[in-house]
Every structure is written in C-alpha cells, then in structure tokens.
C-alpha cells in the first residue's frame, strides 16, 4: 500500500510540476501584432511652353504655341521646359519630333526636313547638359524639387527654304519622360542612358 501511495504521490508531484511548467510557459508567452502603413513616393513633372506664338487651347487646356506667316531665315521664340513639381529628384529625357507638310492637291504631303546638310527647322539653345542618343535628348544632371529645365529657347527656319516650302505647315511635338534618381544612379563606367529601362 505504501508503494501505491508513494507512486500516486510521485504522479501527483509530477503532474503538479507539469502544471506549473505549463503555467510558466503561458506566463512568458506574449503575442503582439503591429500594422505597418507604407506609402510610396512618386515623381511629378510639368511640361510647359512660353514664347512668341499664339496659344493653342484644346478642350480647355493649353497644348502649345502656333506660329503663322513665318518666313525663311526667321527665328521665333519657343521655350519648352520641364519643372520638377514633386519632392523627389528625377532623371529627364525628351524626344522632339518635327514634321513638315504641304497640301498637294488637297493631300498632306511630307516635305524634306533637310536641304543638303542643313536642317529646315533648327532648334536653338540646347545646352551641353543635354546629350542626344538616338531619338532622345538625355539631361545629364538630376532635376531636383522645383527646378525648371529648358529644352531649347527658339526655332529658326532655314534661309535656304525655297518656294516649294510656301504654305507648308509643321509640328514640333515634345515628349518628356522622367524616372526616379533614388536607387538609380549612373553605374560606374556607365552613361546617363543606363538609368533608363531598355
């Protein structure tokens, strides 16, 4: 009987210790949850233009300047620019598409953009900070908050334009793209074009 009592006492002690261990385990266990709110930053730019021409408004928005009765050899003020209107610096590139057409028998026909080696429509004031690669002009410096970068400052129509260019009409369309600078530096031994996706 003593053996049974001893065995029961030992079982009771072991169960008691297990219960204490379990209680201790719950006492030292803690669970917590946090909610982390992550917001992303963005880049913002404004492409605008000033100059001598007549403003063109489409659907209530300014879309550019129009120049009429331009003569060969004439220079007109046209200053497109890009402003960093956000908080983050960005890299900038622009593409300038020039077209020149003339109505021939009522059908718009493309006119040559060069006379020999001379551009019929010449863009003036493109600074050395712009590097032309392919169809794009890359701005080689970071554009910081509130900074405005001029693309060019005027346009000259070649004096060599002959009578075949009379009554022609053209467009200068500027496309601007920006990409973040943060975590997107020019790699060692690389160029400004390397920051842009291929």
Polypeptide structure, described:
The chain has one helix at residues 2-28, and strands spanning 45-51, 54-58, 61-66, 75-84, 90-104, 107-110, 114-115, 118-119, 121-124, 130-133, 136-143, 148-150, 154-157, 168-180. Mean pLDDT is 83; it is low at 2-30. Strands 1, 4, 9, 12 and 13 form a five-stranded antiparallel β-sheet that branches. Strands 5, 6, 10, 11 and 14 form a five-stranded antiparallel β-sheet that branches. A two-stranded antiparallel sheet has the order 2-3. The protein is built from one helix and 14 strands. It is mainly beta and 198 residues long.
**Counted beta strands:** 14
The termini sit apart by 89 Å
Strand content: 35-45%
Number of helices: 1
**Helix/strand structural class:** mainly beta
Order of helix and strand elements from N to C terminus: HEEEEEEEEEEEEEE
Largest sheet: 5 strands, antiparallel
Helix content: 10-25%
Instruction: Report the uncertain regions.
Output: 2-30
**Nearest-integer average pLDDT:** 83
Q: Quaternary arrangement of the chains shown?
A: single chain
How do the strands and helices of this protein lay out in sequence?
Layout: H1 2-28, E1 45-51, E2 54-58, E3 61-66, E4 75-84, E5 90-104, E6 107-110, E7 114-115, E8 118-119, E9 121-124, E10 130-133, E11 136-143, E12 148-150, E13 154-157, E14 168-180
Antiparallel strand pairs: 1-4, 2-3, 4-12, 4-13, 5-6, 5-11, 5-14, 7-8, 9-13, 10-11
Please provide a brief summary of the model.
This protein is mainly β and 198 residues long. It is 14% helix and 44% strand.
